[in-house]
Write a structure and sequence with these properties.
Low-confidence stretches: none
Mean pLDDT: 95
Radius of gyration: 20 Å
Strand content: 15-25%
CATH class of the largest domain: Alpha Beta
Bound molecules: manganese (II) ion
CATH topology of the largest domain: inorganic pyrophosphatase (n-terminal core)
Number of domains: 2
Structural class: alpha/beta
CATH superfamily of the largest domain: inorganic pyrophosphatase (n-terminal core)
Strand order of the largest sheet: 6-7-8-9-11-10
Order of helices and strands: HEHEHEEEHHHHHEEHHEEHEEH
Number of strands: 11
Amino acid sequence: MIKFADQFLDLVKDYETIIVFRHINPDNDALGSQWATVSFLRLLFPEKKIYGTGLHQVVKGVDYPVSDSLQDEQFQDSIGIICDTANHERVDDQRYQLCKTIIRIDHHPIHDLFGDLLLINEQASSTCEILTLMFRHIYIDPLPEVIATYLMAGILSDTIMFSIPSVSSKTFQAAAYLSQSPIKLSDIHAQLYHYSEDEFKFINELRSNIHRSPCGLAYVIVDRKMLEKHNMHPNKAKEYIFALSQVKEFRMWAIFIEIEVDGVSLYNGSLRSQSVVINTIANRFNGGGHPLAAAVKHLSLAQVNQLIEECCVKINAEEVYEK
Ligand SMILES: [Mn+2]
């Protein structure tokens, strides 16, 4: 990491323009790592042109800046930094390919070794954890509040408030460093987790439409009618996977959201698991992710049913994730 931090700074110093990327359908770790990197580099190099890009809709979370709108030419002599993104198709703004050099910082299981300088730590709880420890090495003093807030939001949400197996002493070292900045933890928590009465009603409807497989899988299929009724964007709906969590009897839980692609109904899904590995299944259904938290996209209803069957086979085989 120390070696990486030095190489990172050496590379970045050579470029006048730096563009920071995240993954599509960004979550708080993607957005937090992206905007923390933009803000941190602006602090170190006020004379450089530093941008954050990304076209996909933003999730509920802390107030991240709006993406910069960039012309193709601006990418040409730039260095790109891609945060929290495991495969090249998932980079939000494919113009990353126009950048001269690519740095990648991530904690997803390694699939795709694109990029020129990589810091990939599968053991880390979040990309924000990796960045926090790198920034601490570079900056030493407490970070400005806004940067610490982005990083803390990413750590809190990717670790579900320090409650998943990948949380380690490093995660707490990162959190301890961020706590030296004047961040407001209760405000961050409220921005991440408090919801409106409309959302409350949507959650009630999700919970009352649950299908329960005998193997211990619980899932909800959210059709367009339900989305319309609650004025809910499909990308936002998948975040409500949390509404099915914390039930002892649910070994795995999932939501599948109906979307229309070229006039055809398809489903995007979020999958979660208490202990049985699910990303290996998700990889075969147009998706991927972490051992206990994964996503799939653009499945037909028949594929959704097949995925459900395969999840049950896996639960019955007790293929448990061991950290
Ligand atoms: Mn992440």
